[in-house]
Amino acid sequence: MKTRKLSVRDLDVDGRRVFVRVDFNVPLKDGGVSDDTRVRASLPTLKLILDRGGRPVIASHLGRPKGRRAPEMSLSPVAAHLASLLGTKVLMAPDCIGDEVDGRARGLQAGESLVLENLRFHPEEEKNDDAFSRKLAALADLYVNDAFGTAHRAHASVVGITRHLPRPAAGLLMDAEIASLSRLRDHPEKPYVAVLGGAKVSDKIDLILHLIDQVDAILIGGAMAYTFMKAGGVPIGASRSEDDRIDQARAILARATGTGVRIQLPLDHVAARSPDPGQVWETTPGPAIEDGRVGLDIGPKTREAYARALAPARTVFWNGPLGLFEVPPYDEGTRAVARAIAAAKAFSVVGGGDSIAAINRLGLAPSFSHLSTGGGASLEFLSGVDLPGIIALADVPDQAKAPRPPKPPAARRRPGARGEHRTR
Ligand code: ADP
Ligand code: MG
Prior knowledge:
By secondary structure, this protein is an alpha/beta fold. The chain has 15 helices and 19 strands. Helix 8 packs parallel to helix 10.
């Protein structure tokens, strides 16, 4: 029988205290929250619980305090900001466990929420310590996890606590992440095209190896392209590359050739003497980059070729900017690819903090089916890893209409179209 994860929607929260694990790992500046995207993202789940008479006991980590109290990583400013967004009473606890915190949690009234202090002030959190997990569980009657970004970590507030509270459930954000990423992982409609860019190949080796078995084409850009180009013997000038990954890159190219998956590498680049702003830049005539030049973005021929490859796609996954998008004009390649994905009639998912930042800067967020906030967790999920924080949630029979069975795999397109780079 098909199962799904229990959702916060399925819980009877009326009059109950609900431990809600959120991701409030936000940047702070001058005593306030400088980017509140993650706080806003938690609102639907918190409002649902409050509207149904539940009393949220909200927990998160912030930064890397390494098991010690660090006042500059207090969640207090985040609690204040949450209160202003919710328009309801939000109390701040002095710690995340202990008698005083216990008293505050028990004293919560309808319409009130309690924000616990930074979980990572205690080393037991990251150790998934059972005694600590019990103390967290003692603060509430029910458990909801809405922090997809830490679902790949077996920590006390993510895994340990679920052994001590009944029917651990997914929050609305977690639900949406699981639904969208499962669709990509388990039954993607073909053609499925992946676009991979960003800084490093090393972060994404497992993902690439997994995608090779699923996708029709992988379009590569960003700094990681240079490692692949070097592996293929193309000169890359002074561009960044990871020399200790060249063998792996070569193996990936060989495997792609064997399975008939197209791996497209840039046909041209925007290059300059250095990445500093204001440098004179030029477009290379072909894939090679001259000595003394650094590749900083995909060039116009590549943008066109990638847009052509994306046009027929029915499923797209994108992770990693195609160039040094923080420094214009090296954001043009990322913009062109974002537009091409937006124009395709595809189920489109973007993962990765910098990729989402780039899309937001371009104002293109509404054109994508799903923005995955998970970073590392999204990549692990798509690499086929079962995340401990998701495994820990209760399973229920799925009575909803089963998703359409996957179509038989479309014939893999062979390399050969114009403007493509062979994986040889
Ligand atoms: P994400 O956060 O979306 O997973 P990554 O962290 O892997 O993405 O990579 C993003 C970073 O890669 C950005 O800071 C971007 O400037 C950088 N980058 C992409 N292409 C290049 C390039 N050609 N040269 C230098 N940096 C690049
Ligand atoms: Mg990043």
